[in-house]
Design goal:
There is one protein chain. This protein has about 900 residues and is of the alpha+beta class. The chain contains 22 helices and 38 strands.
Length: about 900
């Protein structure tokens, strides 16, 4: 024992000596936290001097011509304002003023670029000879993110097969964007595809389409080329660079469909094929995007668009306003989920569920909808009830084409082609206007939609209850409709693109007046626009986005050009929001330009039209930002949606054969967030809105369903939400976004959010049908569910007369979260005999900690290839020291201590339906 004690004493002494030496020799950091050894030993403090640093940026893909974002920090980790001059071949000169500069002064430079891993390096500045100026130089060899590389390489593989250069047109359809890969969102895949195709596809041309996806969906790509009327496709599954399918999309017989295309392309097979054929037929790009959101082109999709045409034609929108509501929209829709038409007007008229602009559950035929146009000046509305009659439309198709049927893949595609033509030339023939009732009072309005008073639901939503509606004794005036004639524009695509170019140049001039120079590809500039949704004189304004990109490099895949969900009749605007320093505080300056179609000019204002700029300072996750765009604004009501989404993904994870459905109960802005991010919608029959007063505590925000198609079983749970509490004066958006990223350490967080389950059981299909039809006789699904027996999956399989799965799986999905934001999750299902509550722990915000793909960082050795995209610290290297041993003394001290302690320890121990409508 005596010898070992002596060794431990020596180890302690060496630790003190070596750590002292380390402190004296080098107290710099390598984690991007700042620098403390800024002054050389032979220099004295100086006046403010203008150092120059030459920066060379090399990209892994040499063809990439990106103006990188560069930031400079001084020894105190303070941001330094500088001038940047660009030279050929991505060479830049950085000039700035900094006091106390001497030989050996270090600065921290960070370089960012879309699709690349953010990199930070220390740079010395020194004098050269008698020159009094200080100079430094640094080279950044930027490494692409794994998702960007996938986008570039899958595009190159498709090009080798399809020869894009010789194609008449190119289309890409993908699940990339909201789907996760290696823990991150996949917008970098989109960036890689766009850069790899060098302008052949763009958001303005409308030939890059993304399916509405869940986080767990595979990242698939389908490239299609058109040569004349022939479509050829290359489909790449789940990140593979080898095509799973290479062949025709335009000459598909039933055998090819049944035996090859459908099993190979999977659930989205008809989506890929129907979208590609509709694109070939010239379907408007905004409707193509709506169909991609829904999942495919079909009778319901086109009929929903026809309903929009008739609504605007005969019952044009008026001033904003809804009876007893918080959100201002010209129309409200009362629908019946399960048919594709709902997704059409929800998307194209911005009648989203979270804004209480769409309400509906299974109350009538699933191809009917009622639109309420409200007039706030008279406090009365008009109820317009439409439907598409599939039998009548099919009969008309047969009469006009001579086709006897439209069954099978070839028949369905031919039918779609006819429908697209009818939508453009005769939408009235696709839709029936059944009833029109004037003098809809606030009481009738509220009974149908579930009215609110001081944010509280005061009556249950009846939905499209035809017995109630027809029993009101109102006069049907459907036959008295009068058409409104709209002017149709004749701008060319290049002229529409010029609108975006002009807006960008005018924004540059507006900021220049204030001494601010806007750069191309600037990460600090975000452009919000209604282009992509709105029409001007019935013309789609998508190409304006390409004009913005040409001048400013702003693009959706970079999260710097953000289309804001709007009704298609709303104004076209461009809002330029710049993150900048004002008196040392980071803030956002916004300027909005609204297009005047009468004279082609812009009306400018020094303020926002879209208040989503209030969150960009806090770097929200990409998918949270996309959900806010869908909602079309940020607000306190929408903020909980992302945390609820994270909770569902963490505690109710779905596999390949499983899917979500959801019933909103109280309905708030948060519904737009989690419904968008869970990939569910009324048109898909997976989102229902009931608005019930039985939620007396105001916490039961939704009913969740997880359906397993392999076992034909369904789990249903009621999710209760209690929000967080923040310190007075704190910014709730900033605090919520910290929670999104799994950071619960803020001193402003007084109490964390809580999620509980007030019911959790497995239900039969008959019970589920009752739930989505309103539950019990009073239309109360909440109490109906709470009255069901509490079952396990095995219980349900036995009830249905089935057998257990091969592995005897009876998992109830009560996983345990691990983040700092863990909360108590309690299941207190009641009712039924022998039922007992279950108890488990869960977490809020764990999934949301994923890094945004376009700003990923990683810690690596200088020049090393990053292992992946999920790291969260900066890559920091000492510029110009690759061949020197600059290991800090502290490292040697630690190694020495560990070695000696190890020697002392030796003496002590030995020892993973075919078509939709």
């Amino acid at each position: 024992m005596r010898k070992q004690g002596v060794i431990l004493v020596i180890a302690t002494l060496m630790a003190v000596i070596l750590c002292g030496a380390a402190s004296a020799a080098d107290s710099s950091t390598t984690g991007g936290e700042g620098l403390s050894d800024v002054n050389g030993s032979d220099a004295s403090p100086a006046e403010a001097i203008d150092p120059t640093i030459w920066v060379q940026v090399n990209y892994e893909y040499a063809q990439d011509d990106i103006n990188p974002g560069i930031t400079v920090k001084d020894s105190s980790n303070n941001s330094v304002v500088f001038d940047k001059t660009e030279y050929p071949n991505n060479h830049f000169k950085i000039n700035f003023t900094s006091p106390g500069v001497a030989n050996g002064t270090k600065f921290l430079l960070t370089v960012t670029a879309p699709g690349y891993i953010t990199q930070t390096q220390k740079v010395d500045v020194n004098q050269a000879g008698t020159d009094p100026m200080f100079y430094g130089d640094v080279t950044f060899d930027m490494k692409a993110t794994e998702n960007y590389k996938l986008g570039r390489e899958v595009t190159a593989a498709a090009d080798n097969l399809l020869n894009f250069a010789n194609a008449d047109e190119v289309l890409c359809i993908t699940t990339a964007g909201l789907a996760y890969r290696n823990g991150t969102t996949t917008e970098d895949c989109l960036e890689g595809v766009l850069n790899g195709l060098h302008g052949k596809i763009s958001y303005g041309q409308g030939n890059i389409l993304t399916f509405q996806s869940t986080r767990t969906d595979p990242v698939d790509f389908c490239f299609i080329v058109r040569n004349g009327s022939a479509l050829t496709a290359a489909f790449f599954k789940n990140g593979s660079l080898t095509p799973a399918y290479l062949g025709t999309f335009s000459a598909i017989n039933q055998a090819l469909w049944d035996n090859t295309i459908k099993p190979t392309l999977g659930d989205n097979a008809f989506g890929y094929v129907s979208l590609a054929n509709a694109w070939k037929e010239g379907l408007s790009t905004d409707i193509l995007r709506q169909a991609a959101y829904h999942g495919h082109v079909c009778l319901g999709t086109i009929s929903g668009q026809a309903m929009i045409s008739l609504l605007l034609k005969y019952y044009p929108h008026g001033v904003y306003g809804n009876a007893g509501e918080l959100e201002a929209t010209s129309y409200r829709a009362v629908g019946v989920p399960g048919n594709s038409d709902d997704d059409a007007y929800i998307y194209s008229l911005d009648l989203t569920t979270g804004k209480r602009s769409w309400v509906g559950y299974n109350t009538a035929e699933d191809n009917m909808v009622g639109f309420i146009r409200w007039c706030p000046s008279t406090n009365l509305g008009t109820l317009i009830i439409m439907r598409f009659n599939e039998e009548a439309v099919v009969q008309l198709y047969k009469q006009q084409t001579g086709n006897t049927a439209y069954s099978g893949i070839a028949g369905e595609l031919a039918f779609n082609t006819w429908l697209i033509n009818k939508l453009e030339t005769d939408p009235d023939s696709l839709v029936e206007i059944l009833y029109v009732f004037d003098n809809i009072t606030p009481a009738i309005h509220n009974n149908l939609t579930g009215g609110v008073d001081s944010k509280k639901v005061v009556c249950d939503a009846l939905g499209l209850d035809m017995d109630y509606i027809l029993g009101l004794g109102l006069t049907n005036i459907a036959s008295q409709r009068v058409a409104t004639n709209y002017a149709t524009g004749n701008l060319t695509p290049e002229q529409i693109k010029q609108i975006g170019i002009d807006a960008a140049n005018q924004a540059i001039a507006l900021f220049a007046v204030e001494g601010i120079n806007l750069e191309k590809d600037d990460y600090d500039l975000t452009v919000f626009t209604t282009a992509g949704y709105v029409r001007v004189n019935e013309q789609v304004m998508d190409m304006a986005m390409d004009g913005i990109y040409q001048i400013l490099g702003s693009r959706l895949s970079r999260a710097t050009l953000l289309p804001v969900h709007n009704a298609r009749y709303n104004p076209l605007y461009f809002q330029f929001s710049l993150e900048t320093l004002v008196n040392g505080t980071k803030t956002v300056i916004s300027k909005t330009l609204t297009y005047n179609p009468e004279n082609g000019t812009f009306t400018a204002k020094n303020e926002s039209s879209c208040i989503i700029d209030q969150v960009i300072l806090y770097d929200p996750p990409y998918d949270a930002l996309m959900a806010w765009l869908w909602h079309n604004h940020v607000c306190g009501g929408s903020s909980p949606g992302y945390l609820i989404t994270n909770y569902i993904y963490d505690n109710f994870p779905i596999g390949e054969d499983e899917s979500y459905a959801l019933i909103g109960t109280s309905i708030s802005c948060r519904d737009d967030i989690y419904s968008y991010l869970l990939g569910i919608s009324p048109g898909a029959g997976t989102y229902f809105s009931q608005r019930m007063t039985s939620d007396t505590n105001g916490k039961s925000v939704l009913i969740l369903s997880v359906f397993d198609s392999a076992t034909n079983t369904r789990r249903v749970a009621i999710i209760d939400w209690e929000g967080p509490s923040f310190a007075k004066g704190s910014n709730s958006y900033e605090e919520y976004i910290k929670l999104y990223k799994g950071d619960y350490s803020s001193p402003n967080l007084i109490s964390a959010p809580t999620i509980t389950l007030s019911a959790d059981t497995w239900v039969t299909e008959e019970e589920w049908q009752r739930i989505i039809a309103g539950g019990d006789a009073r239309g109360d699904s909440l109490n109906y569910i709470k009255g069901l027996p509490v079952r396990t999956k095995d219980d349900l399989i036995k009830i249905q007369g089935g057998t257990e799965t091969q592995d005897g799986d009876s998992n109830q999905g009560t996983s345990t979260g691990t983040s700092n934001g863990s909360v108590l999750v309690t299941s207190t299902g009641t009712g039924g005999t022998g039922g007992t509550g279950r108890f488990s722990t869960g977490s809020v915000g764990t999934t949301g900690a994923a890094v945004n793909a376009a700003t990923e960082t990683t810690t690596t050795e200088a020049g090393a290839q990053p292992a992946g995209d999920t790291g969260k610290s900066y890559e920091v290297t000492q510029a110009g020291t690759e061949n020197n041993d600059n290991t800090p003394w502290g490292t040697y001290a630690i190694v020495g201590i560990v070695s000696v302690l190890a020697l002392g320890a030796v003496g002590f121990f030995f020892k993973g339906s075919l078509f939709g409508r």
